[in-house]
Write a structure and sequence with these properties.
The chain is α/β, with parallel strands linked by helices. It has a domain of 108 residues. 25% of the residues lie in helices and 18% in strands. A hairpin with a 3-residue loop joins β1 and β2. α2 runs parallel beside α3. The longest helix is centred in the first third of the chain and has 18 residues. It is elongated. 19% of the residues are buried.
């Protein structure tokens, strides 16, 4: 080695502890990065085109749709339980009204009652799997997600440890106005 000013020899640096630290840090940082994940909710776009005429040969479908408004949920379809009108012949309010007047937040929407109503429809229409959500333009995103969850399965009704599947194929349509 070379001698310094006073005749001392310079020592070599021991890089082994730093290399060990880097060897441990790299896997730790890679594992920590996997905690950041994004969730994806599958949904389908509505079909574009002229409506097809139904013939006598085809089975009648439920054509289930849920309008999400600032008053609650209005469930519509080809089921006799959903075709109710008041005395003047006008459409009544929502089938599942909000818990609080004006639905001030996502918690005000009664998704449990919506799931119960959809469970009754699923009992009468076991082969039906589609539902169309028709939200108003000012409905919050979290309300849509909770509505989709309520329409897909019933966590209170389980069989074999899995929640009962109601209407797994959700389509989001244009806003109700």
């Amino acid at each position: 080695m070379s001698k310094g000013k006073r005749g001392e020899q310079a020592e070599e640096l021991d890089l082994v502890p730093i290399m060990n630290l880097v060897t441990i840090l790299i896997p730790f940082l890679l594992m920590a990065s996997s905690f950041v994940s994004l969730a994806v909710i599958d949904s389908t776009l509505p079909a574009i085109g002229a409506p097809q005429e139904s013939s006598d040969d085809q089975e009648e479908t439920l054509s289930l749709s849920i309008a999400v408004t600032d008053e609650g949920f209005t469930v519509m379809g080809n089921d006799t339980a959903l075709k109710s009108k008041d005395e003047e012949g006008e459409e009544p309010g929502p089938n599942v009204p909000c818990k609080q007047l004006g639905c001030p937040g996502p918690e005000a929407y009664d998704t449990k009652e919506l799931t119960r109503l959809l469970g009754e429809l699923k009992d009468r229409w076991p082969d039906e799997e589609n539902v169309i959500l028709v939200p108003e333009p000012d409905v919050e995103y979290e309300v849509l997600i909770r509505t989709m969850d309520a329409a897909r399965n019933d966590p209170n009704n389980t069989s074999g440890g899995k929640a009962r599947e109601l209407f797994p194929y959700v389509v989001i349509a244009g806003g109700a106005e």
